[in-house]
Amino acid sequence: MSSRPSPLDLVADVAAICVEHTPATVRATAVLQRIGEAIPLEAAALSTFDPVEERHLTVAEIGYSDPVLTYLNDGFVNDDPAFLTMRFRNPRPLRWCDIPNYRDMFSAHEVFIPGGFAEGSTTCLFTRDGRYTGALHLSSDSPLPISDSAVETLIALQRVIAPLMDAMRPPEGHSWTELLEDAAEAGLITADRRMVALPGLRRDRWLADDSPLTAELLARPEGPPSRFAWVSPAGRCHEVRTTRLATGVLVTLREAAAPYRLSPREVQVLTLVAAGLANPAIGLSLSLSPRTVATHVEHILAKLGCATRVAAASKAVAEGIVPLAVPTATPLLVRT
Q1: What is the 3-state secondary structure (H, E, C) of 228-280?
Q2: Which of 30, 121, 225, 330 is deepest in the core (most CB within 10 A)?
Q3: What share of the chain is helix, strand, coil (3-state, %, to 5)?
Q4: Up-side HSE of residue 167: CA atoms within 13 Å toward CB?
């Protein structure tokens, strides 16, 4: 004798769908279809929130007309008081019936009811670390709201679905907290090669628009390396890390000693050695005499355990100590 699937079965199935190795749109559509098997609805949509552009984008939808879908991603998420309450005050999913006189409010009266719906609910999605990533919208042509038990199931699904909608999703095996640990500044390189700020994170000094480091990072058509040491114009050594996310490349900057006990000046010299510059050119770039540059190179070779400049440069690039040079950007990287 078969039994009716439990809410736990729904949560388990959705969790399994979210981690499948298929495109996010395919998984999101499968999630909506599975929810529709358990909760009565005529339309459903999953949207992601882009924190850089501060806008919502539909990832998957079933049954909504274009005007209603456009409103869900614009007017509803920006102006609807019930939605704003969920996002910023109380994350519990809300049904029309939970809000006094909701049928007379703009969203229902002007958009949803003319769109053919008589009830609905929205669930804001939050990751375990509290970041808002998007929303799940459900709508029905029946005036009967989804049950209280269905609301409890949606609460359980909030953190299950949130990573799938996360435009700032970190790579597998990493957490957002880990990526930002001890970072003094952070920014995001967008697909159109801009460095933009992220909500709540500093980008006001070495990753600012007029910084030589920002120019160096944006000058790389293939994208910046995953990490390297960089010396600021103030003479301090920093570690630069980059991480590819769904919406761009995260850049973090933290003050840290260079590997192999390299001094800040030795990092600068090694960066130019890796760029293929000879000692006179390095001296000219750093305002050092060729003899002083030669002394720095000797110290670098000893610290890295290399016999030649070529070997030292190869090791430094391979181990992420200095970046592979982009000829037009190299002077910006080290000039003081």
Answers
A1: EEEECCCCCEEEEEEEEECCEEEEEEEECCCHHHCCHHHHHHHHHHHCCCCHH
A2: 121
A3: 45, 20, 40
A4: 24
Q: Which of 279, 24, 297 is nearest to 134 (CA)?
A: 24
User: What are the CB-based long-range contacts (under 8 Å, 24+) for 146-153?
Assistant: 146/39, 146/40, 146/41, 146/95, 146/119, 146/121, 149/7, 150/7, 150/38, 150/39, 151/92, 151/93, 151/95, 151/121, 152/7, 153/7, 153/10, 153/11, 153/38, 153/39
Supply 259's token pair: 């590997």
Q: Which amino acid type is present at position 264?
A: P
**Rounded Cα distance, 293 and 277, in Å:** 11
pTM of the shown model: 0.70
Name which of 148, 133, 41 is nearest 94 in CA terms.
Answer: 148
Q: How confident is the model at residue 326 (pLDDT cuts 50, 70, 90)?
A: low
Q: What is the pLDDT of residue 178?
A: 85
CA dist list (Å): 206 to 35, 211, 218, 233, 333: 46, 5, 13, 9, 11
**Banded model confidence at residue 336, pLDDT cuts 50, 70, 90:** very low
What was the pLDDT predicted at 327?
54
Q: Are 302 and 265 in contact (CB under 8 A)?
A: no
What is the reported pLDDT for 224? 85
Q: Quick one: DSSP state of residue 211? A: -
Domains recognised in the chain with CATH numbers: 7-165 (3.30.450.40), 176-334 (1.10.10.10)
Contact assessment for residue 10 and residue 35, using Cβ atoms and an 8 Å cutoff: yes
Percent of the chain at pLDDT > 90 equals 76
CB 176 within 8 A of CB 168: yes
Q: What is the pLDDT of residues 119-166, one digit of tens each?
A: 999 999 999 888 899 999 999 999 999 999 999 999 999 999 999 999
Q: Stretch 245-258: mean pLDDT, rounded?
A: 91
The residues, ordered by sequence, that sit 6+ positions from 78 with a Cβ below 8 Å of its Cβ are: none
